[in-house]
Design a protein that fits this description.
The chain is α/β, with parallel strands linked by helices and about 280 residues long. It has nine helices and nine strands. The chain has helices at about 5-15, 20, 35-45, 65-70, 105-110, 125-140, 155-165, 200-215, 220, and strands spanning about 25-30, 50-55, 95-100, 145-150, 170, 185, 195, 240-245, 250-255. The strands form two sheets. A seven-stranded mixed sheet has the order 3-2-1-4-5-9-8, with helices on both faces. Helix 1 (about 5-15) packs across helix 3 and helix 7 runs parallel beside helix 8. The protein is globular. Mean pLDDT is about 75; it is low at about 60-85, about 115-120, about 215-230 and about 260-280.
């Protein structure tokens, strides 16, 4: 049942990273989450904060978890494992939403412009816009993990942003869109760089990004700063891993933890293998 996939993914996130890790900062950044189903499940069922990042969110800003839960058929008490103190932490709170697209490695979101438009005479509106942009950047920088359930165009940017910030991430790639992204190339067995045209090739392309990023300049991996600004230590990500969720369809998860994070992540024996879900490619 497609409507339950977000619940399966949420449970996997909790089992893989642990609630304590996911509750840090602004919580899980739900990239291209659409109706916010993953965010609501994390918030209402597990007491984990979440922020929805989607240019066209299909959920009202003032919506509550109770409204979402009423249509999902889920039971919070079945999965809280006795953690009653966090059961309703976010049940009646608005879901934080960043109504923006994630492009590249998120530079436009992390470095919001402070230049006021000369075409607008409404100083209050301009100030509010700047304040919102700064809030969005803070939510992103302070997230505990980036997660994407079939985020389409935002799939590669999600991985790039995670690499830039040194944040744990988990993404289920779906649509490849080779016409929209003709620059993508993956390393073939004969050493050539072949175009990425299939789901399996796209997954391999994403897995190769970590090694590719290691050869990049440091100023391409972290936010730009002036010489007078203090150096920023970016956590190191674990080697990218692969797992499979127990549902039919695009169920392959590409993910990473931070080397300092304590989690129940899958063993290396699962990398590249079907951990019970029978992943499709």
């Amino acid at each position: 049942d497609k409507s339950q996939r977000h619940e399966v993914f949420a449970e996997w996130l909790v089992e893989t990273y642990g609630r304590d890790t996911l509750r840090r900062g602004s919580g899980v950044l739900d990239v291209a989450g659409g109706n916010g189903a993953l965010s609501w499940t994390l918030r209402s069922r597990y007491g984990i904060p979440a922020v929805l990042l989607d240019p066209r969110p299909r959920v009202a800003v003032a919506a509550t978890a109770s409204k979402m839960e009423s249509g999902s058929g889920s039971k919070e008490s079945d999965t809280m494992d006795g953690d009653d103190n966090n059961n309703n932490t976010f049940a009646n709170q608005p879901l934080p939403i960043i109504p923006r697209a994630l492009n590249g490695n998120g530079s436009d979101l992390l470095e919001p412009t402070t230049t006021r438009s000369s075409n607008s005479g409404d100083d209050e509106d301009n100030t509010l816009s700047q304040s919102q942009s700064q809030q969005y950047a803070e939510w992103i920088r302070n997230c505990s993990c980036l997660a994407g359930m079939h985020p389409d165009q935002a799939t590669e940017p999600l991985v790039d942003l995670a690499l830039r910030l040194g944040k744990p991430f988990a993404v289920l790639p779906c649509c490849v869109m080779p016409t929209l992204f003709p620059h993508r190339r993956r390393l073939a067995q004969n050493g050539s760089r072949d175009p990425v045209r299939s789901h399996s090739a796209f997954c391999q392309y994403l897995l190769e990004k970590q090694e590719k990023e290691k050869g990049e300049e440091d100023d391409q991996l972290e936010p730009k700063r002036t010489d007078s600004a203090p150096a920023t230590t970016i956590p190191q990500l674990s080697p990218f891993q692969v797992d499979y969720l127990p549902f039919v369809g695009r169920n392959k998860v590409i993910y990473a933890t931070t080397t300092a994070a304590t989690s129940s992540s899958r063993s290396s024996d699962d990398v590249g293998g079907g951990g019970g879900g029978g992943g499709s490619s």
